[in-house]
């Protein structure tokens, strides 16, 4: 039943806000995979796990002589001798003190600790924690690069008389640096996604 004065009250009804309004649907911004913690957590995890693989090899006259993992370098674990498959190593090389325990390397310690800290901070959704993880990833990579220069300096300072001793870092070492840098990049992208 239409009221004769209904058409006159309709404008007043709309102006007073009494009409039924639908609440706006909650829409979460599409942040994509970079807006989640998954990429940075994976990057830090890979970098940390790579510490348990061989990071460096000592070579004498071009032959691999001993190796050590990143974790072993960090805690000062003795270098493991690499046995040649056909026994073509001389007795002099076999009797050298290649398995000496070394002092813990501060660069490896800092790289590992910052990697673990970055992983822990990556689980948080707070912007400050994400920023801390970003800095941890960059500094962890920088510490590993410092480890490279530190070892090369030690080899140069040794100056052996008869043998040419070199130290070579394995692909696992370089992949660890890339993993920490990638984790830092993912943290940066995550911070950008949370700004929206």
What does this structure look like?
The protein has 196 residues and is an alpha+beta fold. The protein has a domain at 39-81 and 106-196: Butyryl-CoA Dehydrogenase, subunit A, domain 3 (Up-down Bundle), CATH 1.20.140.150. The chain is built from 7 helices and 4 strands. A 4-stranded antiparallel beta sheet has the order 3-2-1-4. Strand 1 and strand 2 (63-69) form a beta hairpin. Helix 2 runs antiparallel to helix 5 (106-122), helix 2 runs antiparallel to helix 7 and helix 5 (106-122) runs antiparallel to helix 6. The longest helix is centred in the C-terminal third of the chain and has 32 residues, at 127-158. The radius of gyration is 30 Å and the shape is elongated.
Distance between the termini: 50 Å
Q: What is the oligomeric state here?
A: single chain
Instruction: Please tally the β strands and state the result.
Output: 4
Radius of gyration, whole Å: 30 Å
CATH class of the domain at 39-81 and 106-196: Mainly Alpha
The helix-and-strand class reads alpha+beta
Helix content: 40-55%
What's the total helix number? 7
Estimate the mean pLDDT confidence. 80
Largest sheet report: 4 strands, antiparallel
């Amino acid at each position: 039943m239409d009221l004769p004065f209904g058409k006159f009250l309709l404008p007043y009804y709309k102006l007073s806000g009494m009409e039924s309004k639908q609440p706006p649907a909650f829409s979460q911004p599409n942040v994509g995979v970079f807006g989640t913690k998954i990429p940075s957590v994976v990057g830090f995890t890979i970098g940390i796990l790579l510490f348990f693989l061989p990071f460096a090899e000592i070579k004498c006259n071009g032959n691999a002589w001993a190796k050590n993992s990143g974790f072993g370098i960090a805690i000062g674990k003795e270098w493991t001798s690499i046995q040649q498959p056909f026994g073509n190593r001389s007795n002099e090389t076999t009797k050298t003190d290649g398995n000496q325990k070394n002092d813990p390397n501060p660069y490896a310690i800092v790289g590992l600790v910052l990697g673990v800290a970055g992983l822990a901070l990556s689980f948080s959704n707070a912007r400050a924690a994400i920023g801390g993880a970003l800095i941890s990833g960059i500094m962890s990579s920088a510490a590993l690069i410092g480890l490279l220069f530190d070892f090369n300096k030690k080899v140069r300072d040794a100056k052996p008389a008869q043998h040419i001793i070199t130290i070579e870092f394995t692909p696992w070492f370089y992949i660890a640096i890339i993993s920490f840098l990638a984790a830092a990049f993912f943290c940066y992208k995550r911070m950008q996604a949370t700004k929206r």
